Amino acid sequence: MADTFSTHAGQDPTLRDLLAARPALSMHAIDGLVFEDVPLNAIADALGTPTWVMGARTLRGRYARLSGAMRDAGLDVAIHFAVKANDHLAVLKVLGAQGAGADVVSGGELCRAMAAGIPARDIVFSGVGKTRTEMELALRHDIARINVESAEELELLSAAAVACGRTARIALRINPDVDAGTHAKITTGLAGNKFGIPYDRAADLYAHAATLPGIHPAGLAVHIGSQIERMQPYRQAYARVAELVRVIRARDLTVEVIDCGGGLGISYRHETEGAPEALANAIRLELGDLGTRLEIEPGRWLAGPAGLLLSTVILRKRGYDGMPPFIVLDAAMNDLARPSLYDAWHGIIPLSPRDAVAPTEQVHVVGPVCESGDTFGHDRTLPHLRDGSRVAILDTGAYGMVMSSTYNARPMAAQVMVDGSRWDVIRARQKIESLWEGDIVPDTLTHPAGGK
Ligand code: LLP
Q1: Is 32 left (phi over 0), alpha (psi -120 to 50) or beta?
Q2: For residues 347-378, b (16+ Cβ closer than 10 Å) or e, as one string?
Q3: Interior CA angle at 284 toward 278 and 288, to 5°?
Q4: Binning pLDDT at 50, 70 and 90, where does residue 59 land?
Q5: What is the CATH number of domain 56-303?
Q6: pTM for this structure?
Q7: What pLDDT does 370 receive?
Q8: In the chain, what are the domain boundaries?
Q9: Contact (Cβ atoms closer than 8 angstroms) between residue 315 and residue 363
């Protein structure tokens, strides 16, 4: 793949490049950095930092482009938002109102999607290990479908369905053994990955599924990875699915639906954003003539560019012996884990118009957590930032807040949703005391029974 996950490849985009590629962001001479129509300093003034900001108008715009691309290709494709990318109820509400269903991977995500008003009939349950409780939850709510990832899971689901007196509509998730050309930690369609059913076993398992009580085999699913930039791996995977549909139909079984997965990439740095039109074309060319219902389950492409993380420079730490200084932010790897997990590159832009035009310098941008991996940018060329300067870390709407933790007893950051010119708090900053709210200290620790 290109250089999303590497730290040193090529010249970084300048502030001007970053802004030019993000129409929802603009730099104003007085208001500074504006997202949709809201000056981000106003949010930081009111709530402090770190604070996540999601853009409702941006989300709607991206959904419209994706669904429009499918329609223009003559395809009727249901879009199930991958809830793992951003599970905030407000985000799910905005997308649900546009017509999105949900792709969930846990009972928790299933409940969140339903709490946001997404009807069970528009929810698909994926994932490599669903517990009996999660299966029963899905069956009781009669969700659209459960994507089964193994022969073992199929048997467990059949037993759960019989016990609940329900029929599970299922798709078999195929592992097509295709290299999506993405980061090793987020590629899922290779034979060695834990995901899906080996291609050569799928037709037999589908036939077996048709004989199992409580199971209705409805179709096939495939998802080969995330942050995919090229269409060729999609084409390859879909061609393999199409072939399998023909094999299964030749055995007098029906295939009603194909779940084409997610994975469409965005441009964090130099990558070309995955074009929905190209994806639509790949689906049309490989799967368009099979007469099945079609679905996709994107997460990152819809939500990633619709989110930012606001942060403040705590201090500048001098670099000695010609080393770049460290810019220490008040956001850390516990807030945004992607750079420390995948060496992911996220653009960083000052909020203040004065900072934006300051002379540039080479810096390391880090968080305060006690790990060297708590680094947002290595050798970045940024305008000179002062103590107290604020920045926006870009493209954090997907796999941002959802992957946060409270490591180092750092409370969860506040969250805001911008919608055009208005903004609302969608989650207050977590209170410090709530960090230990659930801790239980047994009395016996301080008053040991029969203690001396
Ligand atoms: N469907 C399935 C079955 C998936 O496993 C995933 C993502 C998606 C859909 C959505 O993929 P997307 O359209 O968002 O690429 N935390 C990593 C990404 C992990 C993706 C896991 N599966 C990151 O921050 O890059």
Answers
A1: left
A2: bbbbbbeebbeeeeeebbbbbbbeeeebbbbb
A3: 165
A4: very high
A5: 3.20.20.10
A6: 0.95
A7: 95
A8: 15-55+305-436, 56-303
A9: no
pLDDT, tens digit, 9 for 90 and up, residues 318-354: 999 999 999 999 999 999 999 999 999 999 999 999 9
Pick among 3.40.50.150, 2.40.37.10, 1.20.210.10, 1.10.40.30: CATH of 15-55+305-436? 2.40.37.10
**Position 7 pLDDT exceeds 60:** no
Pocket of ligand 1 contains residue 126 by CB under 6 Å: yes
Residue pointed to by tokens 């022969």: 151
Write b or e for each residue in 405-424: b if 16 or more Cβ atoms lie within 10 A of its Cβ, otherwise e: eeeeebbbbbbbbbbeeebe
pLDDT given for residue 2 in this prediction = 36
Pocket test for ligand 1, best of 197, 226, 340, 395 (most atoms within 8 A of CB): 226
Active site residue 370: yes
- pLDDT for 180-216, tens place per residue? 877 777 667 777 778 899 999 999 999 999 999 999 9
CA-188 nearest atom, ligand 1? 5
User: Which residues are within 8 A (CB) of 418 and not within 5 positions of it... i.e. 6 or more apart?
Assistant: 35, 36, 37, 38, 43, 53, 54, 55, 56, 57
Closest CA to 299 of 195, 221, 226: 226
